[in-house]
Amino acid sequence: MVLMVVGVLSAMVATGCERQEPETVRESAAPSAGAQPRDIDEVRVVALSPAIAATMRDLGLGGLVVGRHGWDQWSDQSLPSCGDQGGVDYEALLRVRPTHVLLQWSGEVPRRLEEMASENTWELTNHPILSLEDIQKAARDLAAKFATADAAKVRVRASAGGALIERDDPWRLGRAIGVDGDTAGVIRRRVLLLVPGTAPAGLGPGSCHHELLEIVGGASVFGAGAGPYVELDGEDVLRLAPGAIVVFAPRAPGATGRSGSVGVEGYVELLGVIAKLDVPAVREGRVWVIDDPLGLVPSTSMLRVRDELARAMEAWLGGR
């Protein structure tokens, strides 16, 4: 995750149609003290992060974006690619003439990029995003920054983006998932959040996905020291013995959504070798797929992931 291990995960996920949010809008948050207004027609944003671009869209600010990250499969593909952490395309940046360049850099920002930003008066801002708190802060910062352009024209969509700005704790569920019994105990303690593939991996402590699992009442198979992204093999999964598995499999463009419980016939396709292991999740049929196109991108899409995780917990625990 540069974007929730984006350096690894972005190559694994595919594009698709997002669930449509309500079209109601409200005025954006008031500009912060000392902010310098800029006419909206002068604002040109390069979002060198798929997560930032997705959050801009959910805030209703997508029309300001004129350049995208090289791995960004979710933004308008007619927008010029301006590179990624493997290499910034400085010529493309010069061609799109940005006023703002937004990053999600995990390490040092390239000196050349800083120099060019200074030479061309680009406002360069880095938004490191990993946790839920990071996502909320980025959303609020973006809304405040671009509300200064022209409050009458820039509006914040009163849906996913608006929720992150308006609520102190936007991730909290509106209801509790309360259950008893041995099955509940197994699921609460032993959930594997899985990114499948030839080199499968689990999402552990430090990831926003792990935080969401705890919010909906589940607990990870991983201990505190495991890290946000844990590479797995068959022996690892046998040792972890998950009582339930949530598979993140972002759907391809135009594909029909299939988020929900997975029947046995879908195990091999989704789980690969894990489908043949004698672990409680497979043996007892507790496998759930989340195929939101942005399900692995730490942005406003995490509100949808939270709701899907809650659905999974309720289904496994009898809807109580």
Shape: elongated
Strand order of the largest sheet: 11-10-9-12-14-13
- Write the H/E string, N to C: HEEHEEEHEHEHEHHEEHEHEEHHEH
CATH superfamily of the largest domain: Nitrogenase molybdenum iron protein domain
Structural class: alpha/beta
Looking at the structure, the CATH topology of the largest domain is: Rossmann fold
> Termini separation (Å)?
34 Å
Taken as a percent bin, the fraction of beta residues is 15-25%
Query: How many beta-strand elements?
Result: 14
Radius of gyration of CA atoms, rounded to a whole number: 20 Å
- Low-pLDDT windows of residues: 1-38
Largest sheet: 6 strands, mixed
Number of structural units classed as domains? 2
CATH class of the largest domain: Alpha Beta
Word description of this protein:
This protein is of the alpha/beta class. The protein folds into two domains: 6-166, Rossmann fold (3-Layer(aba) Sandwich), CATH 3.40.50.1980; 182-316, 3-Layer(aba) Sandwich (Rossmann fold), CATH 3.40.50.1980. Helix content is 31%, strand content 15%. It has twelve helices and 14 strands. The strands form four sheets. The chain has a six-stranded mixed β-sheet. Strands 3-2-6-7 form a four-stranded parallel β-sheet, sandwiched between helices. The longest helix is centred in the middle third of the chain and has 16 residues, at 132-147. The protein is elongated and about 60 Å long. The two termini are 34 Å apart. 44% of the residues are buried. Mean pLDDT is 79; it is low at 1-38.
